[in-house]
Amino acid sequence: MTTIASARSAWNAKANLFLEVDSMRNADNGEVRATGDRAQEPSGKRRHRGTWSIIVAAVVSVVTFALGWLQLHSAERAVGMRLPDTMFGGYDAEYIASVKQLMDPKIMERYQSVHYFWDLLFPLAFASLIILIVRRFAGRNPLRWVFYLVAVVYAAVDIAENFALEAAFNAAGSTDSTATLASVLTTGKFILFVAAVLAFVLSFMLNRPSTINQKVR
């Protein structure tokens, strides 16, 4: 009887030990799942904030571009000549002087509002939009740094063109150097704008292989 009782107590001790180990494993798994949920939650919030940032940047880009273009088009109609800002092939000092002669103070004020407001906001908003999209879709691809650089340089060149044109129009007589600088910046602005749009498109293309691999898995 003593042997049977000791065997039963040993068996009960082993059973209790197994139950404790199993409960500890379940607790560990619960902690791991909870930790995973907590880790995923901030990631989802960041993705949500990133989406809203892209939407806001896109809306600001479209609005500022549309209003700035309307102001330029209105000034062009009043002058009867193309404004330097819209000339991809560039211009010279004589062309700037010809446009300036046709501008009255009211048209000049309208033209300057583009340089000092709409065409300052648009390149900043558009560059931010490109950076946000590349950051969202290009992942860790090394080319993302090139895309970032293109967006930043585009904004810098577009803004510099505004001040160069203001200097050319406000000078007593537009010199060849100021006109040449403004012309080069205008051409560069269009080239960099196209490059920024290509960066936008390529960021999606670079993301496609990883997305397909995730679906396959």
Word description of this protein:
It is a single chain. By secondary structure, this protein is mainly α. The chain contains 5 helices and no strands. The chain has helices spanning 2-79, 93-101, 105-137, 143-170, 176-216.
What are the salient characteristics of this protein?
217 residues; disordered N terminus; disordered C terminus
Counting H and I runs of at least 4 residues, what is the number of helices? 5
Strand proportion, as a percent range, falls in under 5%
Q: What is the N-to-C order of secondary-structure elements (H for helix, E for strand)? A: HHHHH
Principal-axes geometry comes out as: elongated
Strands, total number: 0
Q: Using only CA atoms, what is the Rg?
A: 32 Å
Q: Which percent range fits the helix content?
A: over 70%
Unreliable residue runs: 1-5, 27-41, 210-217
Q: State the secondary-structure class.
A: mainly alpha
The biggest beta sheet reads: none
* Distance from first to last alpha carbon: 61 Å
Average residue pLDDT: 80
